[in-house]
Write a structure and sequence with these properties.
It contains 3 helices and 11 strands. It is of the alpha+beta class. The strands form 3 sheets. The chain has a 4-stranded mixed β-sheet, with helices on both faces. A 4-stranded mixed β-sheet has the order 10-5-6-11, covered by helices on one side. Strand 1 and strand 2 form a beta hairpin. The radius of gyration is 18 Å and the shape is globular. The two termini are 34 Å apart. 23% of the residues are buried.
Length: 194
């Protein structure tokens, strides 16, 4: 085992420095292996962004869609890939957030603010997900996603959002656990100020 350069960090496994192998490469994902570790890697360079959006009347915006990978309807916050459009591979995370917010929900924002970034599932993917807070929302369209999506938009009073999510879970919806981190960020805007 190698020692991590970070204080109080766990040791680095010996096979972490072995060469990376590509097991399969698709349009959006690549399956890779390093030593005994197998993981997925996004083919777009920028990862993804989750948008924390609250309407002027204090409602949190959630989106509902069917996800084939888990064969279930999900409740999520608006989100999008960063740098996934041809010719915009170097897209800024906040521009991607603005684009995804409008595509999925029909809302534009006056200001988009970076909140935090971290791994989506550090044991199985290299993907990094950013959270961005949308401020000063204004309805400019119907939303619903692009031509490949069938998104339903939900606006839920902020004070009832946690209960609403658990109620949807009881109905059989898959609830992305990152939603609860998103709600915490909404309730604690001072925590992410640098």
């Amino acid at each position: 085992m190698q020692t991590s350069p970070l204080p109080h960090a766990s040791p680095i496994p010996d096979d972490a420095s072995l060469p990376e192998e590509t097991l399969f490469s698709g349009k959006w994902l690549t399956l890779k292996k390093r030593g005994r570790w197998e993981y997925a890697s996004r083919n777009n360079p920028g990862g993804a962004v989750i948008i924390l959006a609250v309407t002027p009347d204090d409602k949190v915006i959630f989106v509902e869609q069917y996800r084939v990978s888990i064969l279930a309807n999900t409740i999520e916050m608006p989100a999008g890939l960063v740098g996934d459009l041809e010719g915009a591979e170097d897209e800024d995370v906040l521009l991607a957030a603005e684009r995804a917010l409008e595509e999925e929900t029909g809302y534009a924002c006056g200001r988009m603010e970076f909140v935090h970034e971290g791994p989506s599932s550090s044991g199985m993917s290299t993907e990094m997900i950013a959270f961005a807070r949308a401020w000063d929302l204004k309805k400019v369209g119907k939303g619903g996603g692009d031509e490949t999506e069938n998104i339903i938009v939900h606006e839920v009073p902020r004070s009832e959002a946690g209960k609403w999510l658990f109620d949807r879970a009881a109905e059989g919806f898959s609830i992305d656990a990152k939603l609860f981190a998103g709600l915490w960020f909404i309730e604690h805007p001072e925590a992410h100020k640098r």
